[in-house]
Amino acid sequence: MQIKTILPVVLAAAVSAQNATMNLTSLISSNSNLTGLATLLNTYPNAAAGLANATNVTLFAPSNQALQAVESVLGSANGNTNALVAALLSYHTLQGIYYASNISSTPQFPHSMLNNTLYSNVTGGQVVECRLEGSTAEIISGLKSIANVTQANLNFTGGVVHVIDSVLQIPGNFSSVAENANLTALLGAVNATNLTSTLDEASDITIFAPSNSAFQNIASALGNITAAQAAAVLEYHVINGTIAYSSSLANTTIKTLGGANLTITIENGTVFVNSARVVNADILMTGGVMHIIDSVLNPNNTAAANATQSGAATAYSGASSGTAVPFTSGVPTPTTTIVDLVTSTAQVAASYSSVVAAGGSGASTAGAGGKTSSAGAAAMQTGAMGAAALFGGAAFLANV
């Protein structure tokens, strides 16, 4: 828990005991690291109303520096800022009380209070990932943005507060996450098979997402594939009705959206899906989670991994690679690699392509690649839509 930068354990316990009789707003107002958050709550009282009487919760409270870093990079937000700030605050609030001692090196995915279907289609509320990296407690949100806990275990009458050094990012929908993760072949294939709205608006799904190189490695097998065949392949990469985070994956078989089974195998800590290797796990989405894999799955070849497997396997016998990445025509050109997702507040803010207006069903919003789409049950924000964009141009940090 970054012991060297957090209050010593004994002192922290004493401070927590004192704070246990304070309500949340009083605790925030009394902490010099949270004056920006206090001003935010005062600026948007309607959005903050849900926190006023919260009980049995854990709040990850962005520090003054975290809020300043976000505001300084982004311009003005459009739309209903109150609704956006409410979503932001909900996402920073976990259901249940999690003390520092509850966070371990094993990733956990507790549910937040974010249940607004404009931003989350995860049953029980959108999650964050919590884990210890060495002695540092990391809170991981959309685009794998990492916030570190810098002050822990501040008790109040309704739960506990942990101060974090960057703002959590609300996860985007499938299209936006695929674009920002530079899974352009997958995104192009989904667009070509008219599955985009299905995945963007889905609830409780797991997607095993092939990398661009995975598609390129079997380019010859994709040259004459029909739309129906391509759709069947894509549906074989989706688990419907189950969100399988990395900590819950085990040796098992599981049914896909298309009805066929996948085999999950754990070999020396590496997760295989059939013979494909998971190379980047737990990328949060509006409707669930995405795991990037190093080869394209084949519903007609369900061979599982074996102990001697090395390198990327192929489930398409005789397929050869091509010079170009399939399905990427008209899809934005990749700018990062699959292992180089955004990992800092500054990178997240700099990657924002646009700010989305909040709205109810039918609101016109910017989608992946700058296209507009009609917001239905699921969030339709751009891929980099996150906490920073929620603040707009409000001068709530003026007195920090």
UniProtKB/TrEMBL annotation:
Pfam families in the cross-refs: Fasciclin
Keyword set includes Transcription regulation: no
SUPFAM superfamilies to which the protein is assigned, alphabetical: FAS1 domain
GO term, biological process aspect, one: macroautophagy
Start and end residues of each FAS1 domain: 21-168, 170-297
Cellular compartments per GO CC: fungal-type vacuole membrane
UniProtKB keywords: Signal
Protein name as it appears in the record: FAS1 domain-containing protein
Origin species: Friedmanniomyces endolithicus
